[in-house]
Design brief:
Elements lengths: L5 E5 L10 E7 L2 E5 L7 H10 L9 E3 L5 H4 L2 H5 L4 E4 L4 H5 L2 H11 L3 H4 L11 E3 L5 E4 L2 E7 L8 E5 L2 E5 L4 E2 L5 E2 L9 H12 L6 E4 L3 E3 L2 H24 L4 H18 L4 H9 L2 H17 L1
Parallel strand pairs: 3-4, 4-5, 5-6, 10-13
Antiparallel strand pairs: 1-2, 2-3, 7-8, 8-9, 9-10, 11-12, 13-14
Helix pairs in contact: 7-8, 8-11, 9-11
């Protein structure tokens, strides 16, 4: 795949220092979008699309890795202009009727919901396409292959385009400073399944480049995924004894934060960078996700 035809668009997410990218891919039938990011970033996304010479209404095909708001929250905006939306079968009902997804997000984020994520609206059934594992979707001269890759979320898909893989959260968060961080929010985290699906995509010999929604281009997939697997297992192992002692998540936050701080410092992040990352609040979500993982695994 000619990387000149793939255009990462940094959505300049304001919620914390998390990078979120959408990817515009040029085809002979017009531009295709992989990931929309959150609805709150639509103006930035539209500007990025315009900078490439297109309008939002030119996007008639959108591929989603999964339905979490930082990846799919803006999909309904494209559907309103007639776009077809491709996603995992288990994500279909939540995009068609986002009532539960929206209610859950409102419970978590409260009055910060609009500024962080925006809102969700239903997508008509005829514009939602559930795609099976290994199924190929052809758009003009482009052929996207769906690889079901649960572990981070049960409704997760990575999309292959020739030698390129759009990884969603399968490849974790690639920080500019070097570290690779596993996002482990509830409710679906499954470490063994995640590692299994990392190995699944690494076994596809044709793929030699990744585009991660959180971090963009990864040119050394095997090395990157080895580091991610180590971090996944390390995070889970750290939380396990706290789960076994039935310690509440809030009481785990300080020791877990200290542990992650040491790891990130060793991997090249400065104290100031780590402080900004910690203020984003992701670690508490990781604790809840990993406690739930151990609960399901050990029950």
């Amino acid at each position: 795949m000619d990387l000149k035809n793939i255009h990462p668009i940094d959505l300049d997410f304001k919620g914390n220092d998390l990078e979120i990218f959408s990817f515009l891919v040029e085809s002979d039938e017009g531009p295709v979008l992989v990931e929309t990011g959150p609805h709150s970033c639509l103006t930035t996304l539209e500007a990025g699309i315009a900078a490439l010479g297109y309008k939002l209404t030119d996007i008639q095909h959108v591929f989603l890795s999964h339905i979490h708001l930082d990846h799919a929250g803006g999909a309904w905006c494209f559907a309103e202009h007639g776009a077809q939306i491709y996603l995992h079968p288990l994500g279909y009902k939540h995009m068609h009727n986002p009532e539960k997804l929206l209610a859950s997000a409102l419970m978590i984020y409260g009055d910060k919901m609009d500024s962080l994520w925006g809102t969700l609206k239903p997508i008509p059934a005829e514009q939602l396409h559930s795609v099976d594992d290994g199924q190929v979707i052809t758009i003009g001269n482009l052929a996207f292959t769906s690889w079901h890759t649960p572990g981070h979320a049960k409704h997760h898909t990575a999309w292959q385009l020739e030698n390129v893989l759009f990884t969603g959260d399968l490849a974790g968060i690639k920080r500019k400073e070097g570290p690779i961080i596993p996002p482990c929010p509830p409710p679906d985290i499954d470490i063994e399944l995640w590692v299994l699906n990392i190995d699944k995509v690494l076994a596809i010999e044709e793929i030699d480049r990744y585009y991660a929604t959180h971090g963009a281009l990864i040119s050394n997939p095997a090395q990157h995924m080895a580091k991610l697997k180590e971090s996944l297992i390390a995070f889970a192992d750290f939380i396990k004894p706290y789960y076994l002692k039935n310690i509440p998540a809030q009481e785990i936050l300080l020791p877990f934060s200290e542990y992650v701080t040491r790891r990130l410092a060793l991997q090249g992040m400065t104290g100031a960078q780590i402080k900004i990352f910690m203020e984003g609040g992701a670690l508490l979500a990781d604790i809840f996700g990993l406690l739930r993982y151990w609960s399901k695994k050990l029950s």
